[in-house]
């Protein structure tokens, strides 16, 4: 969306995978927008702020919700094939935490349909694409971004791109956890690279665990399944959400539903002690095949379950990163020339917990704003400096990483062992529920893994498609982010949204109605409080 808005200038898109394989294609539920009565922009704003556990910046929420209907209509004009009602309007479904059916959808493939639509537009405009180019480092000279260093996976070469402006839209960091809905490429590269370059990052301790991931594989089962009327049941056959959110039931916000499922399992009411059921059988096969065809296919393919006839085994899994690179409402980071949008950014419209349907919306609203702000930046700024010092510093670190005596097989084994230890630590100690002593242990274990990684030397680049090299570089990003998540979670002595401390079970607005800002130093991250921009909605008890 950012590239499309900036068309006409010298624009290029470098992407870790082929553009149409971006992880946005896995998003199923829809794009929230108040498209008319009885819904309203004001209701969308209120639901989003309440859903955020009042940590969202209210001016940013107002921007997103106010621009949502216009952006949905723009996508419609660009050819996005939305599902339609009988009278031809864009169809909308209910998702958790929303007062009205608000999510504009395309069956249960909403992200994929919009992703392909925008990809077609970028191709039509002649914008250059560099698929399978992995960003390794931003080049910052004299305090300003002037380009980036990439690993061209198909050719096995380092490439340097000079640029007057860079937009990061690199997604989340789900792969820091052992159980996640995120694709293999979601290793938080953009967040870690911006952090290393000196940008402020914010609120990384707020991690969303999706309530309904397929048991065993953690493949996403869309919130749209509950939006269409699916029921959550424990081993006793109870619709247990009546205990946790008696009004909203299965359509409570994700943090509440995930904690409810985790509690049912912890207290012995899980099926086989390990999962609960998502029951769609009462919806009927016709509705499921029309509105939830991908859910049906995923359950059948990966669990052997025909969800029209039997319930789906599900468990919570990491799904979304509320935190990210701190930005303004125009996607500007704290580094001139560097912009960020989407899941890698923290603007902050999600605060401590994101509502379903707001992440896809955030990508297109703020992607569009990023492209427009870049055009203004290019008019106002002069030529970017030549990246002499920053490129030399990168090449020094690059060359020190390699040992010609090390085999590629050995490199792969050592990197895989460290990554497995990291993701299991994060899942066990910084998961749905958190407690001080376990967070302290996680901080210590991550520090030990960072030390091992610092001593690790790997085989030199081996030409085209050197995935061992990619895995080594990604591990460094994951370790940086794990440190920020664990230390931020230990520092925040309250429970709010996706951050649930068993030893501090209540929200503490007097002390913690603040963002967590972090900046990198040679001694490690330095944390400080950041102001939450309040507005029309006063923090209050959050009940559903």
Relevant terms:
544 residues, 5-stranded mixed beta sheet, 19 strands, alpha+beta
Provide the residue-averaged pLDDT: 96
User: If helices are DSSP runs of H or I spanning 4 or more residues, what is the number of helices?
Assistant: 15
How much helicity do the residues have? 25-40%
Distance between the termini: 35 Å
Instruction: Provide the structure class.
Output: alpha+beta
Number of strand segments: 19
Task: Catalogue the unreliable spans.
Answer: none
Characterize the largest beta sheet: strand count, sense, and whether it forms a barrel. Answer: 5 strands, mixed
What strand line-up does the widest sheet have?
Answer: 17-15-10-18-19
User: What amount of the residues lies in strands?
Assistant: 15-25%
* Radius of gyration, taken over Cα atoms and rounded to an integer in Å: 22 Å
How would you describe the shape? globular
SSE blueprint and pairings:
Layout: H1 2-5, E1 12-15, E2 31-32, H2 41-51, H3 58-77, E3 92-93, E4 103-104, H4 110-124, E5 128-131, E6 133-141, E7 144-152, E8 157-162, E9 166-168, H5 189-197, E10 201-202, E11 207-214, H6 224-227, E12 231-233, H7 254-266, E13 276-279, H8 285-291, H9 293-303, E14 312-321, E15 324-326, E16 338-340, E17 345-346, H10 358-380, H11 388-400, H12 408-429, H13 436-455, H14 467-491, H15 509-512, E18 514-521, E19 524-531
Helix pairs in contact: 2-3, 3-10, 5-14, 8-9, 12-13, 12-14, 13-14
Please, could you describe this protein's structure?
The protein is 37% helix and 17% strand. With 544 residues, it is an alpha+beta fold. The strands form six sheets. The protein has a five-stranded mixed β-sheet with strand order 17-15-10-18-19. A four-stranded antiparallel β-sheet has the order 11-14-13-12. A three-stranded antiparallel β-sheet has the order 2-4-3. It is globular, with a radius of gyration of 22 Å. The protein starts with a helix and ends in a 13-residue tail after the last strand.
